[in-house]
Write a structure and sequence with these properties.
By secondary structure, this protein is of the alpha/beta class. Helices cover 43% and strands 16% of the residues. Helix 2 packs across helix 11 and helix 6 packs across helix 14.
Length: 333
């Protein structure tokens, strides 16, 4: 009888091989800061790790992704590093475990006819300024700019317009005067001739001019509880994402676009490829967090976020390099 049971178990295992590990991941937008995530998808790297990834997209911005994570409706967020600092100020432990975009990638663009002149910061007063969503890093960007120049958010109208084509449309239709956003919107605005970039933080030099340092943005993060309970899943996601970062550093913008699911590509393909080329410099090549760079978003948040300003923030608890450091040497091949 025992032999028969063992035989049945063996045949069942052959007929129904072990299922892939399910992981729910959410992404805040299709802006290019998050590009390593769909690249890993498109190249099949998550599947290679034995993962069945369900993706939710909150096109209105990263703050919605953060809400989903805290509410428990997603396991892992593709969002911005500064969210982990905000959550610690609220006694919620959210931890970044892969850094994907090591720099801001943000620009401030003006529609044709906009009267704002960066040489005269006060000329921004009265402007309608589009951001991806309230509480997003584009929101932090404009609030920090105002604070640095002796103004407040009351001096302008801040309007959530999303990212990508929706953000470009808001400029085209005259719904906003200025736009704080990422590529591909930044490249599309100039390519379509509807506006121009007035402040550019995509380069290291631009970020230092705006923030006083390098400003890490897109990361993979999860709650500490989920990380503690699911270290194997976190490691598999990390392996796949670091592999994608390495692949991106070795391939052209055109080759990168070839890997993407069609829903990630907005506008005409050639301009989108140009946007990817413009954004390539912001991506990490190894996924590691830099402790010095982590100081920049903390400094920015403290200037206008009272909960962060009042809190004793332990930056070392907002990220971990442990999983990236444990990626197998052959994972990037």
């Amino acid at each position: 009888m025992k032999t028969l049971m063992m035989a049945l178990a063996a045949s069942t295992a052959l007929a129904f091989p072990s299922l892939a590990q399910e992981v729910r991941m959410s992404v805040g937008s299709y802006n290019l800061n998050n590009l390593p995530f769909p690249v890993a998808q498109g190249l099949g790297y998550y599947e290679d790790e034995g993962l069945d990834v369900t993706v939710d997209n909150f096109a209105s911005g990263g703050s919605k992704t953060l809400q989903a994570l805290v509410a428990g409706s997603t396991d892992i967020a593709v969002g911005f590093y500064d969210h982990t600092i905000q959550m610690q100020a609220q006694n919620k432990h959210v931890v970044g475990f892969v850094e994907m975009a090591r720099n801001s990638g943000l620009v401030l663009a003006g529609r044709n006819g906009a009267t704002f002149d960066p040489a005269n910061p006060e000329s921004i007063k009265g402007a309608k300024v589009g951001i991806t969503a309230p509480g997003s890093s584009s929101d932090f960007f404009i609030r920090y700019y105002l604070q640095q120049h002796g103004m407040t958010a009351d001096d302008i109208a801040i309007i959530g317009v999303g990212s990508g084509s929706a953000a470009v449309a808001a400029v085209e239709q005259g719904k906003i005067d200025l736009l704080v956003n990422y590529d591909p919107a930044a490249t599309f605005i100039e390519a379509k001739g509807v506006g121009s970039i007035l402040i550019d933080a995509r380069s290291d030099e631009g970020a230092k001019a705006v923030y006083g340092g390098i400003y890490p943005t897109s990361v993979l993060y999860a709650t500490q509880d989920f990380i503690d309970d699911n270290p194997e899943a976190i490691q598999k996601v990390t392996n796949a994402t670091v592999r994608a970062l390495k692949w991106m550093s070795e391939h052209s913008a055109e080759e990168i676009v070839e890997t993407l699911p069609v829903e990630y590509i907005s506008g005409d393909r050639e301009t989108y490829i140009r946007a990817v080329e413009n954004a390539k410099a912001i991506f990490s090549e190894d996924g590691l967090f830099n402790p010095e760079d982590a100081e920049t978003p903390l400094r920015v948040l403290k200037t206008f976020n009272q909960s962060v300003a009042r809190a004793e923030i332990d930056l070392a608890a907002t990220y971990t390099n442990a999983f990236v450091e444990a990626v197998p040497a052959d994972a990037s091949n």
